[in-house]
């Protein structure tokens, strides 16, 4: 397994509070890794470290063989924030077009890429609509399209499926799987354990600590729990009694 | 490399900001019409008073510099404030876009709007309202455009100190109004107390007004006019450089 991301002893302390506590983890290349844990467990902070938006207090984070935040990573890593960061007063197509233009090395295929990215999130019929006129779920799909359009090697998606209907959610996961099959590395966060089944590997985070790093079948086998939700609970309780 | 400006990213950013402006026709209308409407109001205010037309010429000339500065300051600081609050700024800073691309993109887009504003206001003042200047009205347009750049640059800078749009609006009285008081419009520079002259001397609007008054008084462009205009442009460039420092890619 080659690693796209390596965390070693990674800590983040923000105004006196330890948000991430000495994390050690490997995130495999060309696969979907799920970052799971309750809200407030440090998922977003970890993602912000990986994209270079968050200062590290201790340890290190290596992304595609570079220290996280290296300028040359910006063209290779895509990121969507939890709340959709798009321009409400621009149309869907204008939003995607602008984010495509931020990657000048990909200009040759930009036209095709824009249409393809909009289609990938199922918004073909809405390309000419302003983002602010769309529903919350549609807006977060615009935000995902803005990340897809640049074909990043590593895609960091913070809760991309929140507020989406089941059909669309399934379609997006299929899309992510196809991207992983093509060699893209995806790190997808969620606080819903159901989504873990779509991931090749899971990082379970709680209160800034890594509870476990394993595959979904391993998680079920290790805990003997019937569902992934129960398995996560079992794991947390197991650790609490051990502590 | 993403630390240096990339012309195609700068252009894409300027086009994006112009698309956003175009999506808001009311703002465009206000940018273009408001200074002209205010000058027209001023015209009727002075029309019937003794010596009114000379007074109008003097005040209108100064306002042609002050109004684009004030309007562009407020438009820009709110636009940039929105970019910070909506999360798009943080997202942009994780892409290959350089800070200079973003700031120049904004400056170019708003300068286009400011130029339209200056051309309309100056044309109306000179040809319909009878504003008289010894020098060319096109020099007035040029100075008005540079003043608008200054407004854009200071707006980009001061938006960093505002957490909300309400605060951004409050920077108007703090940054813009003292400059209007001290720029020589209300009281000539030489008639102010010495310490106020000292403050006025470090405010860019003072130089903008000096440049405009040179055009008002002299048939040909003077050296004082060019140096004053260069000082205004220098302030704008310094403000843009400082604004770049207010865009951290990484937060603690």
Protein described:
By secondary structure, chain A is an alpha/beta fold. The model of chain A has no long low-confidence stretch (mean pLDDT 89). Chain A starts with a strand and ends with a helix. Chain A has a 6-stranded mixed beta sheet, with helices on both faces. Chain A folds into 2 domains: 3-76 and 152-242, Rossmann fold, CATH 3.40.50.300; 85-151, no CATH class. Chain A has helices at 43-51, 92-101, 110-120, 136-148, 166-181, 216-223, 228-242, and strands at residues 3-14, 17-28, 32-36, 58-63, 66-67, 77-80, 154-157, 185-190, 201-206, 209-214. In chain A, 34% of the residues lie in helices and 26% in strands. With 252 residues, chain B is mainly alpha-helical. Chain B has one domain. Chain B contains 10 helices and no strands. Chain B is globular and about 60 Å long. The A-B interface holds A 14, 51-55, 69, 71-72, 74-75, 77, 79-81, 83, 85-90, 94, 98-99, 101-104, 107, 130, 150 and B 1-3, 6, 8-9, 12-13, 15-16, 19-20, 23-24, 86-88, 90-97, 249-252.
